[in-house]
Amino acid sequence: MDQYDLRSDTVTWPTPEMREAMATAELGDDVFYEDPTLNALQDEAAALLGKEAGLFVTSGTQGNLSAALAHCGRGDEAILGKTAHMFRAEAGSLSGMGGVHSSQLSDQPDGQLPLDAIRAAIRVDDEHYPRTRLICLETPHADCDGTPLPLEYVQQVAAIAKEHGVALHIDGARLFNAAAALGVPAAELVAPADSASFCLSKGLCAPIGSVVVGDAAFIERARRIRKMLGGGLRQAGVPAAAGRVSLQRMIGRIGEDHRRARMLAEGLAQIPHIRLNLERVQTNMFYLHLLPSAGINPLQLSQRLAEDDVLIMASRDHRERIRLVTHYWITDEAVEHILAAFRRALNHHS
Ligand SMILES: Cc1ncc(COP(=O)(O)O)c(C=O)c1O
Question: Fewer CB atoms near the end CB (10 Å): N or C, the chain?
Fold first, then answer.
C-alpha cells in the first residue's frame, strides 16, 4: 500500500498470492451450486468453525441480515446492543428489510450485554408483544474498543437463549481477532451459537466477502434470504479464491496486527495531547482522544497526518474518539513512520 491507512482493516488490499488465486480459480455458477472454489471455501469455513455448513455473502452486513432473517420473521424481535454494528451501522436493515423489531440493550464498555438485561428483555408469550426469536452478540465489539467477548460469557448468553428457545447469532466480523486475543480457537467461541458470520475482507485481507456458518437447514434458509437481497452470485469463485487464501495464510498471523496495535498505542500514549487507555488495547483496533490542549481539532490532525501519508478517520469534534486499526499492510516500519508523523503533526501547535 502506498499510504499508512489506519481508518479500518477494510482498506486492506489482496496479497499477490490472492491475486494469483483469483486469476486462476476454477469456476462455475454458484446459484446452481456449481462453483467448486466457492463450495470449497464454504466447506473449509464451516469445518474451521465446527458448523455443518457455510454460506458466502457479499459483505458482513449481508451476512448478518441473511442470518437474522433466517432466524426471525416479520414482527419478531431480536435483542442486541445499542452500539452493535447490526443495530448502529447496517442502515436499519433488520427493520427496513426484514420487519424485525429490535430490543436494544445498553452494551457495557467491554461489549457485553448484562445477562439480567437479556433475561428481562425476553418476552413472555402474549399477543401484545413481539416474539423474541434472536439474541445477537458482537465479538470483538467494534464500538467497545475492539474488545473480545470471553468464551464463558458467550456460553452464559447461549444458555439463556436455549432456556427460552431463542437463537443466538454472533457477528464475528473480526472473529479471528477475538480468537487470537483470547487464545481460544474460533470454533470454540462460536460453538455455543446457532449461527455466526465473519468477514474475509477485514483483517483477513481478501477484497470481498464474508461467510455465515450454522446448521445445514439454517444455511438453506439464509441462502434464500441472500438471494432476495441480490446476493446470489454466479462465478463467485473469483472472490472465494482470495477467501481461501485468507483462511490458509491470514488467520495464523493476525496476532501480529495486535502486537503492532499495542506498539502503536504505547508510542501514542507518550505523545502530549493524546489520551488513550492502554488496558483497552486487546485486538487490532483502539480509540484515542485528542485533548483540546493540542490546539488543533481531530479533523486538522487528520489533514496534517495525511501530508505524511497517514490516514485516520476524524471528525471536527474533540469529544469524538479517533479509531485506529492495524492490519496486514501496517508493518513494524509503518508503526515507526506513523508515530513520527503524529509527533510532527502535534508539535506544530504545542
Ligand atoms: C462488527 C462489524 N460487523 C459487521 C460489519 C459489516 O461489514 P461490511 O462492511 O462488510 O458490511 C462491520 C464493518 O465494519 C463490523 O465492524
Answer: C
State whether the beta carbon of 67 lies less than 6 angstroms from ligand 1. Answer: no
Last residue of a domain, one of 195, 224, 251: 251
Task: Give the residue, by CA position, lying nearest to ligand 1 atom 4.
Answer: 60
- What domain range includes position 220? 14-251
CA of 85 to the centre of ligand 1 (A): 7
User: Do 153 and 112 meet the contact criterion of CB atoms below 8 Å apart?
Assistant: yes
Dig out the grid coordinates for 126 from the structure.
402474549
pLDDT tens digits along 188-218: 999 999 999 999 999 999 999 999 999 999 9
Are 316 and 337 part of one and the same domain? yes
Nearest atom (ligand 1) to Cα of 174: 1
pLDDT in tens, 88-113: 999 999 999 999 999 999 999 999 99
Residue nearest to atom 8 of ligand 1 (CA): 60
98 & 29 share domain: yes
CB count within 10 Å of CB 315 equals 13
Count of CB atoms situated within 10 Å of the CB of 212: 32
Is the model's pLDDT at 325 over the cut of 50? yes
- The residue whose CA has the least distance to atom 5 of ligand 1 is 60
Which candidate, 74, 69, 75, places its Cα nearest to that of 57? 69
178 lines ligand 1 (CB under 6 A): no
Contact at 8 Å (CB) between 320 and 341? Answer: no
Alpha carbon of 86 to ligand 1 centroid (Å): 8
Same domain membership, residue 343 and residue 239 = no
The residue whose C-alpha atom lies closest to atom 9 belonging to ligand 1 is 60
C-alpha cell at 43: 466447506
* CATH number, residue 299: 3.90.1150.10
> What is the pTM assigned to this prediction?
0.97
